[in-house]
Amino acid sequence: METQYDVDFVLMRYAEVLLNYAETANETGDFATALDLVTQIRKRSGIEPGADNKYGIAATTKEQMREAILAERNIEFCFEGHRFWDLRRLRKLNILNNTTKHGVEAIAINANGTEMKLEDANVLAKTYTLKENQFKYSVLAGAKYRKQSEPGTRYLLFLSNSTISH
Fold first, then answer.
1. How many domains does the chain have?
2. Are residues 110 and 60 in the same domain?
3. CA separation for the pair 134, 36 (Å, rounded)
4. Could you give the C-alpha distances from 72 to 59, 91, 97, in angstroms and in order?
5. CA-closest candidate to residue 134, choices 154, 120, 152, 150
6. 133: alpha, beta or left, given left = phi > 0 and alpha = psi -120 to 50?
7. Residue 42: which domain range?
């Protein structure tokens, strides 16, 4: 039985393939390929080559290229949920230390305006019956939420440090 679907889901964008390849090339010592791949992405985006024909890429070392690729990923995948995982994979979460967490908190409310129990909200959320006006929205007070990370810890999701070291 063959099934047809009308909706296509993007699992991986071409830019991600190029940036993954660029990162791999750079880490294995192929700086020229890494530079070419990042240049391709910038060229595709309509960035001008500039007087030096380098498309704004100033990297000349492996370390600088690593940072350039990370910066390009941050721009290319803005609002796509990649940044946290990139920083985690590269063991750089600590660069967010002491930065402020921003966001909006949405709490489901009952018809009488009281806060709904989380269990009840979860049931309604699973059936998609909660509407926008059934939430109380508030901006998170940024100063209360400072990001902290311990360098060298919690980078392998389900493995404790004791498991890794054995």
1. 2
2. no
3. 50
4. 12, 17, 21
5. 120
6. alpha
7. 14-95
How far is C-alpha 121 from the geometric centre of its chain's CA atoms? 27
Q: Which two tokens stand for residue 96?
A: 């967010």
pTM exceeds cut of 0.85: no
Same-domain status, 143 and 157:
yes
| Cβ atoms 146, 99 nearer than 8 A | yes
Closest to 92 in 3D by CA, of 116, 123, 70: 70
| Domain shared by 18 and 84, yes or no | yes
Q: Which of 47, 63, 95 marks a domain boundary?
A: 95
- Distance between terminal CA atoms of the chain? 49
pLDDT of 134-152, one tens digit each?
888 877 665 555 556 665 5
Give me the sign of the Cα torsion angle 77, 78, 80, 85: positive
